[in-house]
Amino acid sequence: MSKSRALSSDQPDSAEAIAARPVAADIKSSINLRIDANTRQLIDEAAAILGKTRTEFMIESARRHAIDVILDQRLFVLDPEYHDAFMQALDNPPAPGSKLRSLLRRVPSWQE
Length: 112
Description:
The protein is mostly helical. It has helices at 15-19, 37-50, 54-74, 80-91, 98-105; strands at residues 5-7, 76-78. Helix content is 54%, strand content 5%. Helix 2 packs across helix 3 (54-74). The protein is elongated, with a radius of gyration of 23 Å. Residues 1-11 have low confidence and may be disordered.
């Protein structure tokens, strides 16, 4: 195995897997945004540098950021020694303490 290991809640998600997820419908729709002139100019300049339209630039940028946000919630990488310690902690949780037992005995406020 490589020097780092990836862990996630269910199954490992790569950026490619997230980006390729099917949507409910492949129908294109629009998003309307209101932005100040300076921001629009900045976006236009960056898009021009890359040879892209404003729309292409904004979609690519937003999509990349969305993937990063999702991966930040699902994926983290650990060095082998930290991975082993993490797995050991998951496999052998500490016994519940008095504060946890007390908390679990309380009736939740939404049920009162």
